[in-house]
Design a protein that fits this description.
The chain has 120 residues and is mostly helical. 48% of the residues lie in helices and 5% in strands. GO terms for molecular function: electron transfer activity; heme binding; metal ion binding.
Length: 120
């Protein structure tokens, strides 16, 4: 059975949405707005453009220290999301990068794998 590119992207996006709901939504909220001054927004986040595929390392390893998102400083940090495969991380990133008005070209699995290898 052949799949069009659109169907593959839709599947990736939908799987990413389910994984986001399970692993990310508690802090970043269902609409990606974050939680006030504690957790940064992902919707319209300027950081996503600058970090790009490097966000895979943030998902895998977490983030400590201060982070600036849309001119607001956040200090809470982020715990690593343990046990996700590179495919799952790719799907989460593609969801985040294309939800809530965010628009970015879909990230390829090999890009995420290279990023994860670099941050080991």
């Amino acid at each position: 059975m052949a799949f069009s590119c659109g169907n593959s992207r839709e599947k990736t996006y939908n799987e990413g949405a389910m994984l986001y709901e399970k692993h990310c939504e508690n802090c970043h909220m269902s609409d990606g707005t974050g939680l006030e001054a504690l957790y940064p927004p992902l919707a319209g986040a300027d950081m996503l453009q600058s970090v790009g595929v490097g966000a895979a390392c943030i998902i895998k390893n977490g983030l400590q220290g201060k982070i600036m998102v849309n001119g607001v400083e956040f200090e809470t940090g982020m715990a690593p999301v343990v046990g996700l495969s590179s495919v799952e991380i790719t799907n989460i990133l593609n969801y985040i990068h294309n939800a809530w008005g965010n628009r970015r070209e879909f990230i390829k699995l090999n890009e995420v794998e290279a990023s994860l290898k670099a941050c080991e």
